[in-house]
């Protein structure tokens, strides 16, 4: 049986279409096969536990960004909920309300505060730097958040931290900054990355092997 004439041109270009598909797929295959390595959790014991996140920052930062404690806590909590298996969290707003209500909260032991919320662990995030522009390049926007991390076991509220770590997040990570960006978009992107960086301390993950 002979094929209709209209089908002949399609058959003629079919090998080209297929080869084109292969060419389009080639980059994907290359990226999919990029080598990765496993980075183990620095502190894997938050999985399946209730965690109280407390954000501390300098008064100057709090004056410029009154909601920074709530914003940072929410971004960190979101990243951890997505990656730390079966971890649950005290409401960020409840913790911030306590900080507003009890002005001497930072004189209390973090483990004691977590215990008041029936948490198993308290994660204290001490922000040491929170900025959206480099002082030497005020026209370029680049988010920078640095922090100390301390985990306290609320079963031992007077004990020292069971874990200590540091975070230094830059956004954009691989450029000196963005020209013409706005403060809010840079802050949001930097806090999103900061949240992922913090969460990465508490679960095993795969990263690109550079």
Describe the fold and architecture.
The protein has six helices and eight strands. It is globular, with a radius of gyration of 24 Å. Helix 3 packs across helix 6. By secondary structure, it is α/β, with parallel strands linked by helices. Strands 2, 3, 4, 5, 6 and 7 form a six-stranded mixed β-sheet that branches. The chain starts with 6 loop residues before the first helix and ends with a strand. It folds into two domains: 7-35; 38-208, ABC-type transport auxiliary lipoprotein component (Rossmann fold), CATH 3.40.50. The protein has helices at residues 7-32, 59-64, 68-83, 92-101, 110-116, 183-199, and strands spanning 36-39, 50-56, 88-89, 121-134, 137-153, 163-171, 178-179, 205-208.
Write the layout of secondary structure elements.
Layout: H1 7-32, E1 36-39, E2 50-56, H2 59-64, H3 68-83, E3 88-89, H4 92-101, H5 110-116, E4 121-134, E5 137-153, E6 163-171, E7 178-179, H6 183-199, E8 205-208
Parallel strand pairs: 2-3, 2-4
Antiparallel strand pairs: 1-8, 4-5, 5-6, 5-7
Using the coordinates above, name the CATH class of the largest domain.
Alpha Beta
Strand fraction equals 25-35%
The figure for the number of domains is 2
Shape: globular
Rg over alpha carbons: 24 Å
Major β-sheet annotation: 6 strands, mixed
Category from helices, strands and their pairing: alpha/beta
Instruction: Give the N-to-C terminal Cα separation.
Output: 58 Å
CATH architecture of the largest domain: 3-Layer(aba) Sandwich
In DSSP terms (H or I, runs of 4 or more residues), the helix count works out at 6
- Can you give the mean pLDDT? 85
CATH superfamily membership of the largest domain: ABC-type transport auxiliary lipoprotein component
